[in-house]
Amino acid sequence: MAKCYILASISNVLYHQMQDVGLASDIMLSLKEMFAKQGRSTRQETMRQIYNTKMAKGTLVREHCLRMISNLNTLEVLGADDDGASQVDMILHSLPESFKEFKLNYNMSKKIYSLSELMNELVATKGILGTSSVDANMAEASTSQPKSKDKGVPGDQKVE
């Protein structure tokens, strides 16, 4: 039954080469030998992409994490043996300086995240960072405006 599924799912050229092979395990071994080198170069290219990826300014955290998770999943399918902690470290390495406190807290607390938990925490953190920077900008703007229009108080002049 497994042999039928394998033969049905491969290209016609491979089908004709493999139809006389007796066991499904022999077919799989033959296919692995044929495509192992291609998998190695693809794995190396995917690893290069992961290590060189940095979150671009203006990119949503969720989009960046999903792209990184997709690359990590591809790497896993290609036979790389990375544990969950290493994958989390790779994503954290790709984040900008604005996540420095998150990284520090992660390292100090020694919390273990799945990739989806990490993504949700980063989105929440970015929301907090975004809100606090907006609040800081609003506070700065409100303090730069004069609070009273009394002419007799020194230093309380309107600057245009």
Architecture overview:
With 160 residues, the chain is an all-alpha fold. The protein has a domain at 56-137. The protein is 69% helix and 0% strand. It contains seven helices and no strands. Helix 1 (2-9) crosses helix 3 and helix 4 packs antiparallel against helix 7. The N and C termini lie far apart (83 Å). The relative contact order is 0.07.
Count of distinct strands: 0
Overall pLDDT level: 77
Rg from C-alpha positions?
Answer: 27 Å
Low-confidence stretches: 131-160
Give the number of helices: 7
Derived from helix and strand composition plus strand pairing, the structural class reads mainly alpha
In short:
This protein is mainly α.
Present the secondary structure layout:
Layout lengths: L1 H8 L2 H7 L5 H29 L8 H17 L6 H10 L6 H10 L5 H30 L16
Helix pairs in contact: 1-3, 3-4, 4-7
Question: Can you give keywords for this protein?
Answer:
mainly alpha, elongated
